[in-house]
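Sample intake — CRISPR-associated protein, TM1812 family
Collected from: Allochromatium warmingii
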Amino acid sequence: MTSTLVSFLGRARQDPKTGYRTAHYRFANGAIHTTPFFGLALREVLNPNQLVLLGTAGSMWDVLIEQFATEGEDEELRLRLIEAATENAVDAALLDAVTPVVERALGVSCKLRLIDYGRDAEGQAHILDSIAEAVEDGRVSIDLTHGFRHLTAIGALSAFFLERVRGLTIEGLYYGALDMTENGETPIVRLDGLLNIERWLDALSRFDQNGDYGLFAPLLRADGVAADKVQCLVDAAFFERTLNLSDARRRILTFLPVLDTPLTGVSSLFQSSLTKRLNWVRGARLMAYQKRLAMFYLRQGDYVRAAILGFEAVITRECDRRKFGHQDHQRDRKPAEEAFEAEMRVGEHPRSVVDGYWMLKNLRNALAHGNPAALEHVRQIIVNPERLPLELQRAMDRVLN
């Protein structure tokens, strides 16, 4: 799999030859790399297949070429780049001409790309697009050390963008913390936690839309939650999608003790949010579970699941009222359904309950089977995107409350 390092080039002039001040960067393994460009030190450590260097028309491309140009051989190109950088006029054609010089010096495939200054939302979007265009596939590491300060925020966002939109694997976000230099050594700060926060926020948002417990599994696993406990959430999502709610609830209950002790890593920030979304299951009976999901799917516009689960909640309630079991259709659920309908026929229930029940059952049958409803008024409801959710809501309110 291709590995790429993305780095930014700014326009500092702290040193007339290197632009940036030379620093002794200390990596986690204790190795010290001395360079004015942190991205070059990081390249030596990560050994990527490709280096993508991003800068504006005013970045110090001229200082960069001083690091790699061979005296005499690349003199004309060096002078052209110096002149263009002085006038903030570096263009893509000039960078394409410089690229072989950089590749020859580093021994790795390189892409030198111009990016927008990012002064407004449109320009910032162009930066994301430039990064996505330069990184085609594989694993990506991003160096956020150099460049304009606001590019650090954009670079961090680009990591999430590449991961979610392009499906790439982000291996790390790095920052050479020159301001934290002590005893002549500059530490390397990993900003991967920012990406993990984005992942959690995304998972919570998507869960609120689709109810998939499995979205939390890789995040919890990355922070050390036992694999068998994490698998409970994956299984719960599967069982819930197949309407096997009893097994889904059992899996969630098996997982919940994990949330009774503090989580580690970024997961700890979201422990209360996750607990809030799962805690309902502790005291929920099957009928309440079915009703809750029916209302959830109704809000999401999944009318088939909403109608099926709403109707099953009615039958579960009738099973409970008659002390029947829940699981066996022929022995428990069908007799409970028939007994309830018999009661309605002899007037034992209010008209609103009767109307709600038959509307819910007719809508459930028509939606679940995908066939035209036998009753004209039901057919008219099913083809009307405004009436269908309203009638489903009204029917469930009448028969379940």
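Post-analysis note: Residues 62 and 83 are 8 Å apart (CA to CA).
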